[in-house]
Amino acid sequence: MPRHNLRTIKFWRRLRSVFSSERVMDILVFFGALVVATGFWVLQRLNDTFEMEVRVPLSLTGVPRGVTLTTPLPSSVRVTLRDRGTQLMNYMRHRIKPVTLEFSLYDDGGATGRGYVPIADVQHAINMQMLTSTQIQRITPDTLEFFYNRGLHRRLPVRLSGTVETTERNYLHSITFSPDSVIVYAPALVLDTMMHAYTEETHISNIEEDYVDNLRLRPMRGVRYEPNVVQMTAHVDYYTEKTFSVPIVGVNFPADKVLRAFPAQVDVTVRVGAMNYNKVSSDDFVLTVSYEDLINHPGDRFRPEIKSIPQGTSAPRLSPPECEYLIEQVESGEVE
User: Fold this and answer.
1) In this structure, which topology does domain 49-149 adopt according to CATH?
2) Which of 17, 75, 165, 241 has its C-alpha lying 20 to 30 A from 324's C-alpha?
3) Strands 114-117 and 144-149, how do they pair?
4) What's the half-sphere exposure (Cβ side, CA atoms, 13 Å) at 254?
């Protein structure tokens, strides 16, 4: 006899001897009884009353051409059913068909741009598919509405709702959107009050380089955006310092008096973004001192007032911070 046949015979003899033992038979009997008892318990429990939540799809049909749904109906409702467990199992095996709602039944003629669907209409449509013993306990949400208009729209610029902050070494140069404007569909009363299309609330901090993100536009009842997602780019620049020599200008001096400041020009050091470094010149700064200040606060020194600095610069420092001065009397026709 081939060797592999002998091995097979020995294996089956050992297996038979194991299962023929009294201990193994007791275990098998125990598990068999446990399965029967569990099955009996499950059948008993299924005869009890339970609640079960199912999701029923909604569908709005018959929307006329030229009508834009700005806020559609919810895609489904959650329905809580009450019945015996054996009956509820039917709804697990066979899903409830979608509830179809006809647009014309809930159209008010466009006066408000709002369609309201009574929850009783939905409940009636679901009841038609229920077993007679099944009760509907609740339907969520309990208010069903949709908004629409007949093509009324405007193109509005996009604006950020929120904040964008950089590190101390950087500054926010600008924020751009792509696209920079969107088409907004809404009822006339809403559309007339809208000046911009705002993004959802967004807060970004500690960025030190250009930052790009896709942002959804802020949802509003009865409002639809095309598109409803825009790409925001926060353009970030870094700071550097630059020094300018700026003359001091006397303000409101009488015609026969002239300011003589020492020095006549002061170094102004500012923090400026790299993008604007070559765009800023000393002509963009104005340093002044008024005749009234010098008269009302006599002395031999004054602190120049920074009257104007160019956009894109910050944190100005003067060197020297104070100047000596004389008020010189001049003859008519000698005024410089």
Assistant:
1) RNA Polymerase Alpha Subunit; Chain A, domain 2 (2.170.120)
2) 241
3) antiparallel
4) 11
Report the helix count and the strand count for the chain, using DSSP H and E.
Answer: 6, 23
Q: φ, ψ for residue 283 (rounded to 5)?
A: -65, -15
- Yes or no: domain 240-329 corresponds to CATH 2.170.120.30: yes
- Return the domain boundaries, the chain: 3-43, 49-149, 153-238, 240-329
In which band, very low, low, confident or very high, does the pLDDT at 131 lie, cut at 50, 70 and 90? Answer: confident
Separation between Cα atoms, residue 11 and residue 163, nearest integer Å: 76
pLDDT digits 0-9 by tens, 21-70: 555 555 555 566 555 555 554 455 545 677 888 899 999 999 988 888 88
Q: Quote the tokens at residue 278.
A: 């070559």
Provide Rg for the chain, Cα atoms: 41
The 10s digit of each residue's pLDDT in 69-101 is 888 999 999 999 888 877 777 877 777 889 999
Q: Is the dihedral of CA 276, 279, 280, 284 positive or negative?
A: negative
Annotate 236-252 with DSSP letters as a single string: EEEEEEEEEEEEEEEES
Q: Are 186 and 112 in contact (CB under 8 A)?
A: no
Class at the top of the CATH hierarchy for domain 153-238: mainly beta
30's tokens: 């125990």
What type of residue sits at position 269? T
Is residue 243 a contact partner of residue 267, using CB atoms and an 8 Å limit?
yes
Handedness of CA 273, 276, 282, 288 (dihedral sign): negative
Alpha-carbon torsion 55, 56, 57, 60, what sign?
A: negative
Write out the two tokens for 300: 């031999």
Residue 121's nearest CA partner among 138, 101, 137 is 101
Query: 132 is written with which tokens?
Result: 């007679």
Residues 6+ apart with CB under 8 A from 85: 45, 46, 47, 48, 49, 50
Element (H, E) at 296: helix 291-296
In this predicted structure, which of 85-89, 145-149, 241-245 has the lowest mean pLDDT? 85-89
